[in-house]
Amino acid sequence: MQTTHGTAIRRLALGIALASASAGTHASMGNIGTSYGIFPEDLATAQALSMFNSQVSANYYNPAALVKDERGELTQAIMHAEQELRAERPGIENDVLSDEPSQSVLVGMKTNIGSLLQSGHPIHLGFIAGVEEYGKEMLAFSSEASETGQFMRYGREPLFLSVGAGTRIWRGISIGGASRITLDSTAELNTTSNFAGETENTELKVGAEPAIRSILGLTLNWGDTFCPEGCFLSGLETGMTYRNSSASSTTVNSNVVVPGPFPPSDPLNLAVSTIDSYQPEIYAFGTQYAGDGWRFGFTVEQRKWSALEEELEKDTVKDQQDLSGNASTYAEFDDTVVPRIGGEVDLFGHFSVLFGAAYEESPLQSEQTPKLNYFDNDRIIGGLGLSATYERTRFFTYPIRFDIGYQYQQLQERDFTVQRAGNTETVTTDGDIHVVSGSITFKF
Questions:
Q1: Pairing relation of β-strands 173-193 and 246-257?
Q2: pLDDT tens across 15-74, in order?
Q3: Is the model more confident about 382 or about 141?
């Protein structure tokens, strides 16, 4: 009886502590900035030109590009991602494993704070914030082992925060730095309980503190640097960025006293530590060439997914150990290279069409991850968008910009072995993701 009651108490304590730490909705081992794009322009070009965009989303992709437009900016956007992630398995007709949408509202602002300095040297400060469920969900978090299987990089990201600044250091050369901010949540539970789950003398503490990760960027405009009067290098830009790894985390500690089996001198202690919304360390290099009414470019990213293996070893939810503490078989990850290509062409003066494509190879090398049962697939990405400028404004100093972007991601078929109820079975996974985003931008 002690074992049965002990199990019930463990479940009670863990459930209370986790519920206190965060709401129970699905998140992802990724974020909107790397999975889709922040604003419509990023979605439409498959992030190929994001390092050179004049909008405030450059704060995340390349803060050095914040200097491209001297004016201040306020951008509001909404994003809706519709996903159908499938896992076909023997004897099951419905192969849809996940179709929960992601819905975000985002706001970005940048301004020149150079007037704070006596020198007046321009320094452009940028800020981006995003909240899930159109602003209703900020701290949701989910981490689990799964018998049916789970896709590694799709779901919700309740809170997206980035703050940065950029400035020119010489003609055509600008640098920038930013921070990607995530939350580390903690919960501590001390209580006395009986076998019926009734508690007394309960003390519950919940907290969260920011975890700050760096983003660095450099942009070189070859024409402005080497031939300000104009030459064949005019319109050619090169950018390099570094984004440090980041993750949201939750740590739960609980001490439960049960008169008899777990006295005050030896309470039942539960310690849980887990991560989600993981972004690997990313190095990116890109270039674009712009002419009169058009621009084309490409970007190459190296993503250091191999570091996730060490993070999962410290994760008490995803560590795949059995209760006896036997050695685990961890998921294996490889570093990946992501190529992106995109362009923008002006139409009729006030309109422009954006397009882009990318290919992302899956970093997950393991075809079997016992208990965790992770799925991840290679992705083909295509984007299309439209940007419009409305100049006949009566109350605003500068024209208003409207953007709409669409992105489609196709997950390539891949087989995995799933461990379920002590047996193994082979499942074939694939999926389709449709993302739509719209924004309005005011200049000041």
A1: parallel
A2: 544 444 443 334 456 689 999 999 999 999 999 999 999 999 999 999 999 999 999 999
A3: 382
Q: Taking the CB of residue 391, how many other CB atoms lie within 10 A of it?
A: 10
Contacts of 331 (CB under 8 A, 6+ apart): 308, 309, 312, 364, 366, 369, 372, 374
Write down the architecture of domain 2-443 according to CATH: Beta Barrel (2.40)
Query: What DSSP string runs through 177-199?
Result: EEEEEEEEEEEEEEEEE-TT--E
Rounded distance between C-alpha atoms, residue 192 and residue 77, angstroms = 48
CA 42 – CA 45 distance, rounded (Å): 5
Cα 224 from Cα 68, distance rounded (Å): 12
Provide the terminal-to-terminal Cα distance of the chain, rounded to the nearest Å.
Answer: 70
Q: Supply the pTM of this predicted model.
A: 0.88
- CA gap 138, 155 in Å, rounded: 14
Q: Which two tokens stand for residue 267?
A: 């309470």
Q: Are 437 and 79 in contact (CB under 8 A)?
A: yes
Contact 316, 271 (CB under 8 A): yes
Cα 49-53-55 angle, rounded to 5 deg: 145
DSSP-derived pairing of the beta strands 150-151 and 124-132: unpaired
| Backbone phi and psi for residue 96, each to the nearest 5 degrees, phi listed first | -80, 115
The candidate with the shortest Cα–Cα distance to 159, out of 337, 351, 302, 23, is 23
What per-residue confidence (pLDDT) applies to 329? 53
Nearest CA to 218 out of 234, 235, 238 is that of 238
Paired tokens of 200: 């007394």
d(CA 29, CA 278): 5
Condensed to tens digits (0 to 9), the pLDDT of residues 144-174 reads: 777 788 898 877 777 899 999 999 999 999 9
* pLDDT tens sequence across 94-111: 899 888 888 999 999 999
Place of tokens 């009729």: 348
> What pLDDT, on a 0 to 100 scale, did the predictor assign at position 326?
52
Amino acid, res. 421: A
Residue 437, SS3 per DSSP: strand
DSSP 233-302: TTTEEEEEEEE--EEEEEEEEEEEEBTTTB-TTS-EEEEEEEEEEEE-EEEEEEEEEEETTEEEEEEEEE
pLDDT of res. 60: 97
